[in-house]
Design a protein that fits this description.
Length: 530
């Protein structure tokens, strides 16, 4: 009896230790160690496993959505904080040979957490330490590594020259890795296009662990990663971008209107003119819910926030002619260097220290987020706007960005890049629901509200397909679950919404460079059926 117990225990212990020593993650670590050059940095500062004290700090540092920071959220088997291209190569080779899924994370701003969560065993390849920026002002280009934030890019450009800029997004803590590879829309897009339209070269680690530049990867793959999302194709190490010329002063304004001040008529008119303005003018309309000072009731308020690539003297007549209802006054307008204009979208005073652009969002201030997007080809009638605002006030954590189109976007072909939304679009909507409340049921209630508002919008927005913007990631439009099996029937649904006719070419590029579908996640590009 006693002996058999000892034997059983021994067997179990041996069994466990055999299994552990042969587990894919153990094999991954020993494989990685073979490639790793300790002269660069000790391996203990590159691989973090759950029993390391700092594991959760590293994990949480770049989780920007509290929905995926819960006890129940699946955790990675390991996090690799790559410090060099060779760490990235080793991660890909060793993950592939051990059949472990990887999630590639630069900033962790993905709205559905696809850069750091998976429903099947996985590791995170964290790119935040690969964040260099090298500006060659003479040739008007720069190399930007994946983990560099766009805030750092804007800051670094401005330190080199006040006559250059780069057209990318609003939130300064987004990273070049995912943001550029999904398109990258921002206040300079009407004039210069997307971030992806201004990329001239790139370095990617492919499924074999090889580093390819544009010439080596070929035009199909280069096309695919400049708008089709990088994570279906490989790991982007860096981008070579074309800087754009800008005057040393631009003009910004932020005017708020309540419903009593005619916000509905203004938003209606905004729809008619925002996409027709000169390319230099970008006016966003941002409806949000606030508490009425008088009775504490929820009301909608609309911010009209504008950037004009030019002076105040030119801006005012332009607005007075096309949008006099806004009542823009000279005192609403601020002339400043372009880099300072990037602060206004983040709610930072434009006179603040520019180093604010280098700040990391605080991990302890992460909120819950649900985002969605829509494309609008025709104006919403006034009664429609009124009904939408009426619906919005049911939830004071909800707001939208109505983002104007037109300008150069009308002139770029829909197939120039995977991002298909170009000609004839009036504006897109980014729906945002940001909440802090932790009480049970809140997540479900808030997501339900976002979904019901999204459904409410159906008659007003594009259809067949109802277009969506990949960077405003939304799992509701289709997702492969489990994420390690990519089904064409499912992928087609989100693929066509995000990429329309460009989806087929993305599938071809994917099939060619990653035929065994190693780089996969819930909304990745599928390979062609064999
Ligand atoms: C507050 C906020 C504001 C935003 N504002 C804008 C805006 O103004 N304009 C706009 O266009 N978008 C905007 N977005 C959306 C943003 O562009 C996307 O979330 C984008 O995917 C972020 O990329 P990332 O690398 O920063 O994030 P991550 O979460 O790190 O990555 C996002 C996706 O890219 C992949 N990825 C990341 N790095 C790499 C890499 N090196 N190689 C291959 N794949 C990689 C990830 O695996 C994931 O699929 C905003 C998002 C937030 C949260
Ligand atoms: C992680 O844990 C291992 C063993 O548990 C240890 O050798 C290593 O130093 C730790 N690394 C860090 C960065 O804490
Ligand atoms: C996908 O993951 C599940 C769960 O870990 C596993 O059982 C299954 O074998 C995997 N399938 C493939 C094709 O890797
Ligand atoms: C987060 O931490 C910072 C210090 O790093 C502190 O100033 C701030 O108040 C904290 N915020 C919250 C919401 O706890
Ligand atoms: C959310 O919506 C689902 C489906 O419509 C419903 O069953 C559920 O009760 C809702 N939950 C909350 C908290 O409102």
């Amino acid at each position: 009896m006693e002996l058999s117990l000892v034997l059983t225990t021994l067997t179990i212990v041996t069994f466990i230790s055999t299994v552990t020593s042969q587990s894919p993650i153990q094999n991954f670590v020993s494989c990685f160690s073979k490639f790793h050059e300790p002269s660069h940095s000790p391996i203990t500062q590159v691989i973090y496993t759950p029993n390391n004290k700092t594991f959760s700090t590293i994990l949480n540092q770049h989780i920007r959505n509290k929905r995926f920071k819960l006890g129940s959220t699946p955790k990675p088997l390991a996090i690799i904080t790559a410090k060099s291209a060779s760490d990235v190569q080793a991660t890909v080779k060793c993950a592939k040979s051990n059949n472990i899924q990887i999630r590639i994370r630069s900033s962790g701003h993905d709205f559905e957490g696809y850069s750091y969560v998976s429903d099947v065993p996985f590791i995170i390849l964290d790119m935040f330490l690969i964040n260099g920026i090298n500006i060659d002002i003479h040739n008007e280009v720069a190399w930007v590594e994946s983990g560099a934030t766009i805030g750092k890019l804007y800051y670094t450009i401005s330190k080199t020259s006040e006559f250059y800029a780069f057209p990318a997004g609003i939130c300064y803590s987004l990273c070049a890795g995912g943001h550029f590879s999904g398109g990258g829309y921002g206040p300079l897009t009407r004039k210069f296009g997307l971030a992806a339209d201004n990329i001239v070269d790139a370095k990617i680690v492919d499924v074999n662990g090889k580093i390819l530049d544009r010439k080596a990867m070929g035009e199909d793959l280069f096309w695919a990663i400049t708008g089709g999302g990088g994570a279906s194709f490989g790991v982007i190490l860096s981008w070579k971008i074309k800087l754009v010329k800008i005057p040393n002063l631009v003009t910004v304004f932020d005017v708020t209107k309540t419903l009593e001040e005619g916000a509905i008529d203004l938003v209606y008119k905004w729809q008619l003119i925002a996409s027709k303005m000169p390319d230099e003018l970008f006016i966003i309309a941002k409806p949000r819910v606030v508490k009425n000072a008088k009775d504490g009731k929820n009301v909608v308020q609309v911010h009209f926030v504008g950037l004009f690539v030019g002076t105040n003297e030119k801006l005012l007549p332009l607005i007075n002619k096309n949008f006099p209802e806004l009542g823009l006054k000279s005192s609403d307008c601020h002339q400043l260097p372009w880099v300072r204009s990037t602060l206004i979208w983040n709610g930072i005073p434009t006179e603040a220290n520019l180093k604010a652009l280098l700040d990391e969002p605080k991990a302890n201030e992460t909120v819950y987020v649900k985002a969605q997007s829509d494309i609008l080809m025709k104006p919403i009638p006034k009664e429609g706007i009124k009904a939408i605002f009426q619906k919005m006030i049911e939830d004071d954590t909800f707001f939208m960005y109505w983002i104007p189109y037109g300008g150069i976007m009308n002139k770029i072909s829909t197939s120039a890049k995977p991002f298909p939304n170009r000609k004839g679009i009036l504006f897109m909507i980014q729906y945002s629901n940001y909440w802090r409340e932790d009480t049970p049921g809140t997540i479900e209630r808030e997501i339900n509200f976002s979904r019901s508002l999204f459904k409410f919008m159906t008659p007003y927005v594009s259809n067949s397909p109802r277009g969506a913007i990949m960077n405003y990631r939304d799992a509701d439009i289709g997702a492969n679950l489990p994420s390690n099996v990519t089904k064409m029937e499912i992928s087609k649904v989100y693929g066509i919404k995000y990429f329309k006719d460009n989806f087929g070419r993305l599938v071809n590029a994917k099939t060619k460079v990653d035929p065994d579908n190693f780089f996969r996640y819930e909304q990745s590009i599928p390979t062609k059926l064999k």
